[in-house]
Structures are given as C-alpha cells and as structure tokens.
Recover the amino acids of this structure.
C-alpha cells in the first residue's frame, strides 16, 4: 500500500470548513507547495491551527491574505498584518494561546489524553472561561485537546511507509501536529525506499502518516 | 544616552548573572544583547524555543541555512554540542523548570513581580508566543528594558495596568538606570547606574523602591 | 485437541481480520501466533510497546541483540521500515487510537465487552503493564483465548467477576470453538468451529449468545 | 564544567530514603553497573519508580531481592518473585499503574504540567481514590505528576555536555525519566568529545543531564 499521492489529490482531501493543523514556524518547516495549491484552489472557511501566522506573503499567512480562513488558533500573529486587520474588522476569529499550551493541547489530542493541567496563563486573560483544577493545593488551568481533520506537515525525508526525518529547526511543531489529525499529509523533499532510513533516526513513525506528497 | 550604549550596558550587567553551564533563553530584541557579553571563563547554552539548544552566532551573509532560525525568525548557526528537538519538547524544557534563566523585555513590570509584555488592548496584539510559558517556567526571570518608555513615562509600576503575561514570576529587573530585585518585602534597589541619582531614579519609577544604605553602582 | 493446533486455529482466524497497512499490537502468549499467519498479499506492522514499530521474526540462535527485545522480554529482529521510539510515545500511539488492532489474552471476558486479564486477587498480581492502555486505546480489541479454562469452566461470562482491565472495549472474541462479536444487542455468535455443535458451545459459555439463522464455520 | 563523575561519586548522591526513577524495561536499557554498586553499598528505604521490576537477579530486581526498597511504583511485577513475596508479606508497598499512565505522569513532572487526564483505568481498581474530571461530557481520571530525587538512566553514547543517544529498544523509558528528577545520572557505554554527535541524532539534550558515569 503506497502512501504517495500527487499534489492535486492532497488538495482534494481538504474541504471547505476543514480544520487544519499546519506544521512550521515563521514559514520554516511549512508545507509551502501544498499551501500554494490551496491558495490557487481557493478552499474557504478553514480553521487554521498553527504556532504563528507567518507573513502576509509567506507560509500559512497567504491563506489569510486570500481570506480562506475564518478561524485561527495560534500563539503569535505579530508578523502577519492580514491576521490583525481581519481580526480587528471581525471577519477572522482569533484565539491566542500560549505556545507551550497549544502544543500540549495538540499532543493531548494525538495521544488520547483528555487534557492537561498547566500553570501557564493563570491570572491572565488566557484563564478566562477555562476550568481551574486544584491539585494538592495548587491551581492549574485545564487545557483541552485540540485535534483537526487534516495535518499539513513538512518533512525533509520520508520512506515509502511514511517514516519521517526533519531538517534542523524545520522540525519544530511538525512531529506533534502529525499525531493529531484524522488525515496527516506530508510534503517531503525526498522519498527513499523502505529500509534506507535508520530506525534510530526516524522522528515521526509512519503510523502517524497517511499521505506523502513528493516535491 | 545612545541606544546602542544603553543596550550594551544592560547586556553586560545581565551577563554577570550567568553561571558556567547555564541554559538560557533570551527573548527577541534587547535581551539578545546578553549573548554578546558572556564572561570568557564560563560557557552557557542558549535555547531557542522553536527547537534548538546551543544557538551559535549569526551566520556570515551568504551562508544562511533556510532551515535554521531562532524564535525571532533570524538566521542562526549552531554551537558544538547543540541539539534539535520538536517545539513540544522545547516547551517541556521551559515549563519543566530546566531553563536556568530567561531574559525578556517588558511593556510594564510591577513591584509584585507581575509582567505585562504581550499586548496593548486595541492597539497591538501580537500574541504571547512562548512568553507566558517562559515566564512561568524558567528558574529565574530577568527583565531587560529601558527604564522609561519613549515618552519618559514609568514602566516599573506599583501594579501593572496592561494584560499580564504572568503573575509574580519576575526575579530581577535590569535597566539603563538600575538593578532591582523583587523580594518578599517589595522591590529592592540593588545597584544604581553610574551617573544616575536616586532622585532621578525615583522620578521615573512609579513602584515603591526599597533603598538600602549601601548602594553599589554599575555600568561605569 | 492439541494445544499447538488450537493456537494455530485461533491465530489463522484472527489473521483474517487484518487489512493491508494495519498497525497491530499482539499481547504475549497465544496472541503472538497471529504473526505466523499473515496473508501473503498484505503487509502489517507490529508494534511492541517497549518502543518499536516493525517487529520482525525471532532472531536465529546466537544472533540475538541484547538491546532488541519485545514487550515479553523475548529477543526480536526488526523489519525494513521499522522505527524506534521511547515508551511514552509508544503509549501515545496506543492511547491515541493509532493502533488498528490489538490481540490480547483474557482471564474473563463478558457480553458487555468488559475484559479481565491482569490479576486474580490473592493469587496472581503481575500488574497490568500496558494492557489497560491497549484495551482503552486501540481501534479494535480482539480477544484470543481457549474457550474454557483448564478445568473446563466458562471464561465468557454474563459479567466479569475478576478486577477489570477495561470496561466495554472488546470488539471480537476468537476461541477454539467460536468467533463472537460484542454488539449493542449483545454477544453475537458469528462463526462456530467446524466440528463443534451449538449445544457444546452453550454448555461452556456463561454469556447469553445471540445465534443467527445462518452460522458459518471456521477452522476446517 | 564537566559532567563526568566516577561510580562511587554517583552512588554517594543516592541517599537512604531517596526516590529514584529507573530507566529500562525488563533490564534492557537499565543502569546495571550503578545498580550493582548500590546493592554493594546497601543504601536502604528507596522508592523505586520503574516500568517493571525486572528479574530477581537482573536489573532493578536485585535491589528488591536485597531488601533495599520499601516502595515501588510500577506497571508490572510479574517477572520478579521477590516483589510479589515482599508485597504479600507487607514489607514492600507496591502501587500498580498502567504503563502509559505512569509514563505520562513522569513526563508531566518533567514538563511542568500539573497532571494529565486519561480514560485508561476508568471503571477499574486503578480509578480508586482518584479525582474524576469531566470534559465536554466525558469522564477522565486525573493523574498527577511523578518526579523523583534521582533518575538513573542508561545511554549508549553521550558527549561531554550530556547529550544522549540510545540503542534500539534500550531507549524505552530512559528519555522520559531523564526529564523528571532533581538529579539525573547517566551510565553510558561511550563518552565522545563535544561536537561528535550530530544535533539531529540526539534524543535527550544535555539540559536534562547532571552526571555521566563512564562504563
């Protein structure tokens, strides 16, 4: 069973209204070709879950500039003017979440946990509307899992079974987001035959990967 | 005073707080200056929250690696002994108390150790990024900033008015005018910048300052 | 019937439940037999919870690697396309619903899909190991066991009496006598072993069985 | 600052009454030399946190056989008769925890989380005495962090800064336990100069490691 598909197939898996986990950080380690194809196709009403909304014309930001996103969950939007403009004019719903919390929420979804407790955000606006759980005399925020329909991942190398290797800081959120979607699609620079990757070297095992899109 | 000199004075002073073998996370902007003044006899490892321990110097122009950036999006190199990891582990390191020191900028900080550095309602909402986790998790939180804002108004307050980044987590504040420690008794003035008088300092500090009898200077 | 033949019959039948590309976790003991009967036209990956996906055949005597074992402590080899990971990620895979099928033994299983396979109070308390996570997290839980215990007593009950491993998580039970599915209506007899009569089956099954009009056989 | 110490120094860091996280699984990936030295020294009243108590005469089991442990938190004790005998005669307090839960509890301690929510163990004796938290209509067990004074880790290779690489399934619980102790001590087969390990290859960054004990 091959996991390799072409770009058009990958795009056809993402519907209007889909929630999408986008790996990458400030456009590094981001599935840029898939994003470009999504922009071209114009798929609308996406929910974007990402560490940062990158730049107006680079990374995930292009989807916001093109008004294909109506909800964002992110920790940082400061590098992308379009996000802020659309948030202010009310056309884009933005939830800002501390980065470590967001990653734990995604990991929880991928790991079958019902949530995690953290002190991050206690006593700040982040705590508003959230359940506080006291454990042995200390308060914690209960942070719920965040999964999605699709994860768009960027890897450096993959074997045909979907085992993934990343490059330097382009690893970032990719291994976590790869765990937490119904379908995980990976844009990959190089696909090698099974057996060519050292089992010690694999960061994301193929069990998390549904589709590979060659560069 | 010249901005570059202010930056350097603060960077040098904070670098003195480091110990050999420390793991350190520097916020973007002014805090990065600290990396330029590490005492020669010690070695510290800098983390960047996007997934690296052991950030090296900036690369030479033309030798940038597109897959190698820091939390501010700037190109970096790696130091010998560096490691890459995913951002979830990066924040496990941060939140789990494994970072000896973080140095961050501030919009406001108060005498209770509260910090506001992530938004100005209705004006600037960049998001907290990793700041809330850093401030909550690092063993020591040091604030590096100019003492007053660009209009000369106090940023060191009795109580923060902007939305908080975290409550009661700041240990030390280092500005161009003073070094101040948050203690159980209040905000303790530890050192004053050479050439600054206590009156000048009080005039641009809203917080109540505990002033000891013996007050060393720094930055001379 | 000979134990080895019983094992083989159950292993062959469960192997038919597999699809190409499945990720599977086999418990120790009888369930490992399934690996010997994978249909030639499909490829499946076996996980061992101590941190490997892609367990291969047992090594030849003399070529064991001391750092390469399965969850039962036995030496293994790795298949092409295998990967190593820590046990925390291994259980993230399990609990997160990424394992298509787990095959486990049972002390007792009941018509509500409850399973008891980790302890007998006052007698045997080996611990649950990874069984509770596996049964809770895997997409499909298949029980592989002899239909009755060594005294001929029923192990498929109306309600488990031993401490549970998990509540309501079992999908399918495959024994030497029958294939049974836990459905919303009750325990559905899907297939009966060639040579076994419904009366024999009922006599050694405490659970209520839903018996369809058309009942295929297996294991002939 | 060198992290390399000798075996005697390592042993002197572990006091009577210490809680110790033991990496390894069925004695594979277990700091066997340090355990042997602990047995020789006879340090008493240890709390042992481990996946399984290994064998009577191999792995962590030796400490139980030698009656140096008065409390065990583990998921499996079936391969070690001494554990069961001492549990039955009341001299050893044993807490049995599902393996995935135990690992998440240790990870939570190392990651600064106040706890995690899991469905594993719901409706079983594991749930007894534990807080149940309802999230969006589903019940979960609240599992608290488990840290310790000491973690005893086994690695295959380390550089002088404490960056670690493991061997095959001897990796097991080691990377998780390395995160969660006040002092992490690593028994390592080979120590290489800094810079010799590829930063991509490192599984446990040196930030988690306090001491290296060469083989």
């Amino acid at each position: 069973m091959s996991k390799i598909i072409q770009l058009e197939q990958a795009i056809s898996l993402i519907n209007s209204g889909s929630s999408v986990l986008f790996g990458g950080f400030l456009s590094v380690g981001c599935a840029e070709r898939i994003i470009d194809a999504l922009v071209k196709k114009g798929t609308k009403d996406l929910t974007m879950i990402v560490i940062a909304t990158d730049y107006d014309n680079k990374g995930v930001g292009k989807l916001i500039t093109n008004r294909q996103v109506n909800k964002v969950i992110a920790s940082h939007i400061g590098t992308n003017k379009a996000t802020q403009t659309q948030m202010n004019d009310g056309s884009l719903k933005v939830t800002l979440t501390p980065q470590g919390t967001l990653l734990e929420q995604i990991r929880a979804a991928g790991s079958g946990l019902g949530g995690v407790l953290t002190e991050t955000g206690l006593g700040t606006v982040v705590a508003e509307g959230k359940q506080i759980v006291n454990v042995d005399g200390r308060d914690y925020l209960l942070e719920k899992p965040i999964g999605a329909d699709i994860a768009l991942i960027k890897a450096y190398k993959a074997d045909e079974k979907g085992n993934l290797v990343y490059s330097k800081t382009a690893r970032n959120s990719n291994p976590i987001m790869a765990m937490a979607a119904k379908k995980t699609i990976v844009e990959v620079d190089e696909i090698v035959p099974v057996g060519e990757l050292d089992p010690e070297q694999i960061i994301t095992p193929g069990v998390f990967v549904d589709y590979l899109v060659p560069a | 005073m010249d901005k570059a000199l202010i930056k350097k004075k603060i960077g040098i002073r904070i670098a003195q707080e480091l110990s050999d073998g420390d793991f350190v996370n520097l916020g973007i902007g002014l805090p990065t200056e600290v990396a330029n003044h590490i005492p020669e006899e010690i070695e510290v490892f800098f983390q960047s929250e996007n997934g690296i321990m052991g950030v090296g110097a900036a690369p030479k122009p033309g030798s940038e690696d597109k897959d190698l950036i820091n939390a501010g999006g700037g190109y970096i190199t790696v130091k010998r002994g560096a490691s890459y990891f995913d951002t979830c582990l990066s924040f496990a390191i941060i939140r789990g108390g494994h970072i000896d020191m973080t140095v961050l900028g501030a919009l406001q900080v108060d005498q209770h150790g509260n910090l506001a550095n992530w938004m100005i309602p209705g004006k600037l909402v960049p998001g907290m990024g990793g700041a809330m986790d850093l401030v909550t998790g690092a063993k020591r939180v040091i604030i590096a900033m100019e003492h007053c804002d660009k209009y000369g108004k106090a940023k060191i307050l009795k109580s923060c008015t902007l939305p908080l980044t975290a409550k009661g987590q700041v240990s030390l504040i280092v500005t161009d005018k003073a070094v101040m420690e948050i203690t159980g008794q209040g905000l303790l003035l530890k050192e004053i910048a050479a050439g600054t008088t206590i009156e000048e300092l009080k005039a641009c500090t809203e917080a109540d300052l505990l002033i000891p009898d013996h007050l060393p200077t720094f930055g001379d």
In short: Chains B and C do not touch (no CB pair under 8 Å). The two ends of chain B are 13 Å apart (CA to CA).
